[in-house]
Amino acid sequence: MTTNKRTLEKKFRRYVLALIALIMLLITVVYIYLEREQARHLIGEQALTTALTVAEIPEVKQALSGTGNREQVRELIDQIQRNAGAEYIVIGDRDGVRLTHPNREQIGKEMVGGDNDDALLYGRSYTSLAQGSLGEAVRGKTPIRGEDGSIIGVVSVGYMVEYINATFLKGFTVFASAILVIFLIGMVGSNALAKSIRRDTFGLEPYQIARLYKERHAVIEAVSEGLLATDQDGRVTLLNALAKEVLQIDEQAIGQKIHHVLPNSEIAAVLQDEEATGQNEVIVNEKRLIIYYQIINEDGHYAGKVARFQNRTELQELVNALSEIQQYSKDLRAQTHEYTNKLYAISGYLQLGYYDEAIDFIEEETGTQTRDDQIVFEQIQDPTIQAILIGKRSKASEKKISFTLDSSSTVEWQWPAEAAAPLVTIIGNVVDNAFDAVIGRDKPTVQVFLTDIGRELIVEVADNGSGIAESIQTQLFERGTTTKCGQRGYGLALVKAALTELNGTLEIEDNQPSGTIMSLYIPKEQVGERSERNDSRR
């Protein structure tokens, strides 16, 4: 369907030429009207001037008063008519009877046209358009006054309308030629402008540009990063939905200076600096953002800058989730290795003839496995928590740690997808800390209890480690604090951040030297409400 659409170049050329033609037509119509009126006015003024001159000739006054030679007056008037280029000069007496006329047969007859009254009755001088004996003409009329000032006659100087039109057409021919030249110049100019616009749009047609714009808008809104762009003057030109939400600005920011939109902001300062690029980390509206700046280059000149940013907390959650997945993969490999060792042990018992020992070993392993599987798969309904427990059970088996799940544990509520990563971080790190705490004990044991009977998910992790030293209890959740030599101490700091996101809390009961109990409390309602809000926004 798009192949039948007119190209931008053709469409632009047609529209521009049509506009030029329309403008030329309107100019021509206005020109014709104004020029015709002006021509009639000028010729009327010329006729009136001639009439005023004739009215002051003494011979004319004498002829009208009966003391002059009328034939000489007629010859004089004929000469003036030829010199003035008028079609006729008619002199009438007080009653409007012709004293002179180009056609001698009309002498002595009454003047026609009905436009003598203003001159004969009221003594006015004027121009008029009237139908005379020779045809329609523009006339200049004025009264002739005697020595005592009384009106004794009238002078009528006429120029035929055909003469006026012929004079107008001579001027219009020149005007029409100029209009044609202008139109041709407009054609050349429109063609050059159309080609220039086509180059500026990279040969794209309007419908292609419209589609690209829609696709660009969809892509910008679909990306999981906030996007903010400014031009070379520091005005906001692009803003996606995530940027509006994170920076707490709206669509009205488009076109405004960035320092007005984000006053006293490090982001605004960097966007206004033509040289600043790279990565930066800032805090905006109590959110820690990682921002990447990129300069827009247009033919070697600075044309603005783009800032794309992500919430550092979300990135950290993603890293944590990936770390846990990698750990689960290692745990599964360890579990495979552990079962292989157990199969070797069973094989050894059988080869040595210790059949009773082999049966006891198998029953012990299958009994423990069956009990734990029953709790995990029948009493724990949430798949994320199931995965955590299975992975940690395998890891405990590899480390020779007794990992037991309280038989009264129950989790019936399934947590929303956005809570999966925080749950992995919270439960996984707490259990790992318990494992680390019991390493080296005679009978390392870690016990886990879970329930969500009330409004909260309660997770208790107990170990028989050596407990937590009083010197680090107050700094336990700070980044870098650890009870393990040579470790970085990020685990509980991540647990605290994830608990904060889920509005949860953590309590530590230190029973030195018999171990530690960590209790986690995570409200179900607030997580569910947040999930519903996210769904409504989507």
TrEMBL record:
GO terms for biological process: regulation of DNA-templated transcription. The keyword Phosphoprotein applies. Its EC number is 2.7.13.3. The chain crosses the membrane at residues 15-34, 172-194. GO terms for molecular function: ATP binding; phosphorelay sensor kinase activity. Keywords: ATP-binding, Cell membrane, Kinase, Membrane, Nucleotide-binding, Phosphoprotein, Transferase, Transmembrane, Transmembrane helix, Two-component regulatory system. It is found in: Cell membrane. Pfam families: HATPase_c, PAS, sCache_3_2, SPOB_a. It is a multi-pass membrane protein. It is an enzyme of class 2 (transferase). GO terms for cellular component: plasma membrane. It catalyses: ATP + protein L-histidine = ADP + protein N-phospho-L-histidine. Residues 423-526 form the Histidine kinase domain. InterPro entries: HATPase_C_sf (IPR036890), HATPase_dom (IPR003594), His_kinase_dom (IPR005467), PAS (IPR000014), PAS-like_dom_sf (IPR035965), PAS_fold (IPR013767), sCache_3 (IPR033463), Sensor-like_sf (IPR029151). Its main location: membrane. This is histidine kinase. The lineage of its organism: Bacteria, Bacillati, Bacillota, Bacilli, Bacillales.
